[in-house]
Amino acid sequence: MYIIKVLIEHPVHSLDTTFDYLYHEALQVGIRVMIPFGYQKIIGYVEAIEETNLTPEQLEKEAGFHYQYIQAVIDEEPLLNQELRELALKLAKMTMSPRIACLQAMLPTQLKPSTNHSVGIKMKTVIHVLNDGVPQTKKQQECLQYLKEHPLSQIKDIPYTKGVVDRLLEQGFVEYQKIEQYRQPHFMNNHQQKTITLTIDQQKVVDGILSKKERVSLIHGVTGSGKTEVYLALASVILKEGRTVMMLVPEISLTPMMVEVFKQRFHDQVAILHSRLSQGEKYDEYRRIKRQEVKIVVGARSAIFAPLENIGLIILDEEHDASYKQDSKPRYLTSQIARMRAKTHHARVVLGSATPSLESYSRAQKGIYDLYVLDKRINQKPLPHVQIIDMVNEMKNHNYSLFSYEMKKRIQETIDRGEQVLLLLNKRGYATYVRCQDCGEVIKCPHCDVTLTYHKDENMLKCHYCEHQIPLMKQCPHCGGKHLKTVGMGTQKVEEDIQRMFHHASVIRYDVDTTKNKDGHMKLLEKFRKKEANILLGTQMIAKGLDFEDVTFVGVLNADMSLNVPDFRASERTFQLLCQVSGRSGRGKKQGTVIIQTYNPDHYAIESAAKHDYQSFYQQEMIYRQKAQYPPYCHMVSIIVQSKEELLVHQSALDIKKYLVSHIHQGAVLGPAKSVIYKMQDIYRERILIKFINSQEIYQVLEVVNDYYNKKQKGKVTVVCDFNPYSQI
Ligand code: ADP
Ligand code: ZN
């Protein structure tokens, strides 16, 4: 008899512990099983097994409870190999999250330990050639020859009728075979194949990186300097060595273009993993990887857990991007996982960015990473000229519009020349909300501490933090007044304005709303590439990776929005965003220009971005970080205390703070303070922030807090420890 220790995901029993079941055979660690749990049947994940000589009766006597049996075994082989199982355990420790949550994060939905539904496997019928020999007719002979040259073809794909194949079948030359058919994710394919020879600068980077083993390299390359070609060149060398490659990109806009480039270069050897694939596609891509049928995985954050073996290279493009930090359980940083996997595989890690994070750049300065610089665009193309427009001046000149005079002029000129425009509306705080003109009340979400956003096309008010939505009311819920007014300027509103303001303008709006459908991104971008529109208006999503030859003007409507947020990375984010979006201009043969509208024209983040001057930004920002003691001068962990009961949150936060202060002997313990959005989905949240140098002590102390609130006390207050926090929400 075997005792099987099973991990489960269960909302009430979300303890980080296993439950014991009996089974008559030894099972493999890492497979899923069906188990009775209370009155339910649920799926669990086998974490360990123990053989026993005792009978079930003896076992029960010893344990003092009634053992139940495993009801069914789901997987034939473990979902994760040993490397990834060990990684899951480390991840649980590092992020202080339950083991089951880590396993869930590592697997595609269809294979998650808690999943009980299947997308099915698509089968197709192909023709398999059995024998050589001479069939009866000429036609049949030709057909057999064709089938030998095109093994495993489907009837529909061959230039012969089913009748001919059936005759071959009768004579025993061929048979029909059912084999699995993978769903093929759609990808863009509009570029002509270019044959590219690396420039001397690019080749130097490639050679440098290949000359050292097991290192982390940072490529600091301005926008358009050809980093992607460097990645491709590195990847082919690694493939020739018989090893595999992981190519990670930020979730949102980069994926279709990056996928296209990799697919064109490496064809079937590439698998894609990102959140916009259908469940079926994801499942198939995952199985192709697991079966070692591909050599390269291109994907977003969670692709770092792809079951590739023999990894030789892990690349993180746009390494500074905030989407590399997962901000739900387990709250991991992708670059950290990349380094861990690289260590196991003796692989290289390459981080690339035009605007490296201060953490990475300072590591490169210290020699912990190797630094490579590409400071020129391909073909010596100049970086675009950037002009800063002070919006205070515009107001002085009685222009209260969102567009400065200069911006209007440039947009019209660009359209008139038959070229294309990219407009960035940095959305934070710019969404449209509703205010009562009588009492001044702003309509808020009843469950979250945020205003509801007005969506004109549906005439609905929606919360962007929970599912809450209601039709726009006629009367103020507060005073009954009838004068409700929409305030602010969302992308939708700006889109309408633009159509009105410019001659021959056709706008594509590119934001979360217009791209939420499957392949939505791709369709809009393809349309823009085909020049079916001359203005692409979007949020941060348009800043990354887009490479359109005819975009010669980029306008930033409101550069300040990301500066005015309570986050120590606000300047860094603003600088990065402005550099990235400017970099979209003038990538083709024609010279590009950029206009940045701001109320803070003297801010160093804006000034250095306008000059494409990373060094100057880095120097000034490092001074600020040192003075205020922020990363990279220390580490941070944010402890989020949450509960549905407001009083309890505050009292517990004070208790925790007291405990931390008396047990931590370094850095600083700050707070508690209310979260930026204090109430979210009816849960109140306060935060304590610890700045520290030595993580060992911090882990020891926080484990006590974590155990007490999340395991022992199991009560109305829970805590979340967020190491390297990126989000202040
Ligand atoms: P980055 O990722 O650094 O912004 P890209 O890799 O997108 O830059 O390269 C910018 C453009 O230059 C692309 O259109 C790319 O095809 C082209 N390019 C890159 N390397 C070369 C090269 N060696 N020769 C010719 N064109 C190149
Ligand atoms: Zn809400």
The CATH topology of the largest domain is what? Answer: Rossmann fold
Distance between the termini: 50 Å
Radius of gyration: 29 Å
**CATH class call of the largest domain:** Alpha Beta
Description of the structure:
The structure is a single chain. With about 725 residues, the chain is α/β, with parallel strands linked by helices. The chain has five domains: about 110 residues, 3-Layer(aba) Sandwich (GIY-YIG endonuclease), CATH 3.40.1440.60; about 60 residues; about 180 residues, 3-Layer(aba) Sandwich (Rossmann fold), CATH 3.40.50; about 180 residues, Rossmann fold (3-Layer(aba) Sandwich); about 90 residues, 2-Layer Sandwich (Alpha-Beta Plaits), CATH 3.30.70.600. The protein is about 30% helix and about 25% strand. The strands form seven sheets. The chain has a seven-stranded parallel sheet, with helices on both faces. Strand 22, helix 15 and strand 23 form a beta-alpha-beta unit. Helix 4 packs across helix 5, helix 6 crosses helix 7 and helix 17 packs antiparallel against helix 18. The longest helix is centred in the C-terminal third of the chain and has 18 residues. The mean pLDDT is about 90. The site of zinc ion has 7 residues, from loops. Adenosine-5'-diphosphate binds next to helix 7.
Summary of the model, kept short:
With 729 residues, the chain is an alpha/beta fold.
